[in-house]
Model the fold of this input.
Amino acid sequence: MLVDMAAKVHQLAAAPADGVAGLSQSFRSRESLADENERLTQENLILAGKTQRLAALIADNARYRTLMNAASLVSEELIVTRIIAVSPDPVRHAVWLDKGTRNGVQVGQALLAAEGLMGQVVAVGEGNSRALLITDSSHAVPVQVNRNGVRGIIEGTGQLSKMTLRHLPSTTDIAEGDLLVTSGLAGRFPPGYPVAEVTQVVMAPGQSFAEVEAKPLADLDRGNYALIVATQPAVLDPAALDIAP
Amino acid sequence: MMVPANARWVIFATLFACLMLSALPLPISWSALRPSWAMLGLFYWVLALPHRVGMLSAALVGAILDLIEGAPAGGQALGLVISTALLQLNYQRVRQFDIWQQSIMMGLLLALTAVIERWVQELLGFPAPGLRYLYPALVSIFFWPLVRELLRGIRRYYEVT
Done:
């Protein structure tokens, strides 16, 4: 399959650099390893503590949701994946991942970094897949403002630190510093994951729409690992929406 | 009279090395500054041995480039075939150019390739605003002398014909 072949080529190209990195990894001092181990143990403890609270919160949340007659909160299964390559195309923001159909990856699943949404899987091979990042100029995500639930669609611009929210009426309540989270509308992305922070709002008099710029929260250019949300992504079927022609 | 092919593997090996350089991981913010190694390598061989390396090789290199970029269709393959055809029609003239004239010629051919690739992608619905897609062509201008001298050295050492 093409995705697998491309991944193999990238692995071959990255082999010398990976080799050097692996070598320096295996020659690290005992001291630095002990330090790291201690730091990770502490971090683990803190995270474990936080997770305990999380369980209670999820239960709470589920109860509230039943009270509100809303759909139940599904806990998502996450697949840890390594980013093995970045597309060399200067106008395309895409990465290759080392998990494929063999590991349950499907087209349309969301890709997460530690800080927020990274992108979505667009092609899968047997053991590899390719994901489009949210800053790619052909990518868009339905989001809502975390503060007040205002909905919009955030688009990539082809620049790593800039995204735009388009077609927001200029009377919309949105301000700098607002957190944008996935709204879950259209069913492609699971709801509630942080996407971007609003950096600039221009409401020009006479314009029908506000110009809103945002900065993605995830470090799209850094890190080796990412998470794939292993849910079944919804396929939007226009026939099912019952739209009169 | 046709000279029999000698050391054809050198062409494959250098093109392969160029493709590997093109696939080398770079941070996204730097990817626009990467010279188009594979295309420069291809253009060198087209100039040096137009009877060995032509549009078929160009299509192959372009298809591999499309593959490693994850591009939707053979945009680069098409672009490379067209610019290679132009170079093949004019190789005798281009060979006589001095090194900077030649470099600018290569930049133009790469820009043409990039524009054709963009056309194809734009038609397929993959927009990319801005002129960022032309940066590699610009950067490559300064790398042509290096690529030419290096590959010429290799070609003479192995007597590739």
Summary: The interface with chain B takes residues 2-3, 5-6, 9-10, 12-14, 17, 85-94, 96, 123, 130, 133, 137-138, 157-158, 160, 220-221 of chain A (CB under 8 Å). The first helix of chain A runs from residue 2 to 26. Chain A has a mean pLDDT of 84.
